[in-house]
Amino acid sequence: MLRRVLALVRKELAGLWKDPKTRMVLLIPPLIQVFLFAYAATYDVVHAPLAIWNEDAGAESAELVRRFDFSPAFRVIAAVQSPGQARALLDAKTAAAVLHLPQDFSADLLAHRTAQVQLLVDARRSNTALMLQGYAATIVATYAAERSGGRGQVTLQTRDWFNPTLESTWFILPGLVCVLSFMMALLVAALSLARERELGTFEQLLVTPLRPIEIMIGKAIPGVVVGMVDATLVTAAALLWFRLPFRGDPLLLGLMLVLYGLGGVGIGLVLSCLAKTQQQAMLGVFVVAAPLIVLSGFAAPIENMPKLVELLSRADPVRYMLVIARGLFLQDLPVAVVLAQAWPMALIALITLGGATVTVRRAVG
Amino acid sequence: MSGTAMRLRGLVRKETKQILRDPSAILIAFLLPVVLLVVNGFGLSLDARDMRIAVVIEAPEETARGLLQAIDASPYLAAQPAPDFPAAEAALTAGRVRGILTVREDFVPRLRRDGAARGQAALAVNATDPNSARLLEGYVSGALSAWLVGEARERRRLPSGGIELAVRDWFNPELRSTAFIVPGVIAMVMTMTGTLLTALIVAREWERGTMEAMLASPAHMAELIAAKLACYFVLGMLSMAMAMALAVTVFDVPFRGSLGALGAAAALFLVFALGLGLFISTLARNQFVASQLAFLTTMMPAMMLSGMLFDIAAMPRWLQLVTFLAPARYLVSILQTLFLAGDIWPVLLPNLAGLGAAALAAIGLTLLVTRRRLD
Question: What's the domain range around B81?
Fold first, then answer.
């Protein structure tokens, strides 16, 4: 049995490797994507263009404006004199926010009254707007605290664990290890059986001494291999170029990637069994791949999803692998937590691969 | 001229029949957008609610109760009292809570003492996800300030000489991330649908040799491409209209621009996407490579490089230049503006120009590659 399966695996891998175009498509795009996406995926806000609408002539308002300009979050780009001008700058996205200091700002401060400032924010991008509000609140509060000598104030000392400088690449790269390798494994598996069926070689495969389960294993292994190779490439880029830490056990990551690859390949093979042509298989990949990636928590946290969508995401192997990859790269995730993610992945792999095998067996019978 | 018109009419009729007979085209145009829009629209949310934080309070019970109430009053936070720091730390490491707020025994005495003393609290955050970490810090600091104001009011000692910051959020006052993500998702969906329509279907024609057969007919290559584009264009526009309707009805995103501007942007973008599909299928010659190329050039770039989720202005300079090559960015910018702000021409015009250039480039490249293939 082993010899037969190995022969099939060798044939499948040769099929992928022989064609130079296919070979390129399997290796080059993941590498290009790592570099583009790792730098792209940032929710950071730096040097947001800020317009100043200052109706106050006092030194206090000038000082507050200076503090905004010197903060890393903002840079002052213009001074406006009217709400109309402010509106125009926000509309055209020339300014991300407008800071409005009313006439009596300095006078109020000097008289120990509560002074008012207003921040108009372009909230089209709500996340950026939230960040800007936070930065503005901190700048204003710090200034107020310094003026009052700190009395009656609370300081919050924050320590960011596992990623002390809040690097967004540290967040996105473990995600890319999962996502890019998953897409490749899924693609290879989804097209494999469908292609045989379209070309008519599927029947030839069925009349060989290979049993359905052997065919499935033979078809699954190349996808897992492709996924592992791509995962290794991305991991190497993450460690060598982006200088990510790796605090967990590399062997554990490898093992989990195999389990994960089996799940991805299983989903691909199910699609492949359902499809009559490569085109339908491909369509299936497009329909499932984007939701699997989106629901995994790759770009936006799972906690934010509506309950029903969150339930749906539990059938998504990427979700579990993401927790493992992020945990092992950044924080030496406890083995118990890793295992709690491992069994759903194993279950997904078992169900999908089992389902695909049953379909093939039915084709024989 | 009349020959061209006649041939075009014939070709269009042929393509229409082919589309109607082949379920995949209909599936790509209508099923794919609905699935993608619904799942991505609900699944991609940056609105944090009830972020769980462990709270370790060593201060007396009365203060502790007040603080916990203040934290729970925030819609963004959910407090979970923890007996001691090690227990909280275990919860943080296992991902059960996002942060640990520690309030020491001398918190209130220090706060009330005269002079330069101030209350101190410490927050440890699981920063594996830096965006959530930053938001969490903001929310906790907001909750503490709220508690402080309540406390001061109770003791009739309002801090003097403070500054009050009032924030007004324009265009999206409730700060719903869905409002900017859904227009972006439409752009992503249209990139995939448009490109797939031509990439998969035409790749099959090349593989089976029917494309060569058509080219051997009296029809010119340009006519052939025009006829294909025209038919899939109609299909794509219908699909776009459906996506827009879903955005407004299901996701409750306001639409403040004009339909004319929307139509122009959609049309230009579709010509680009369909052209890209034709280009890929002509270049690849077989379905396997064509589908992989279509997969790689549409979904991830449209999600990562278009500004749909990540602000292009925050990317490194060289990458900002690269994003000009991802035409989804022009559409995302246009859609976000049309939906949330209105017809702001200084934003719309440059992006429409970008879409036009992309459409021309896609068609031009296709003509070039097709000609070369036949030589």
Answer: 51-154
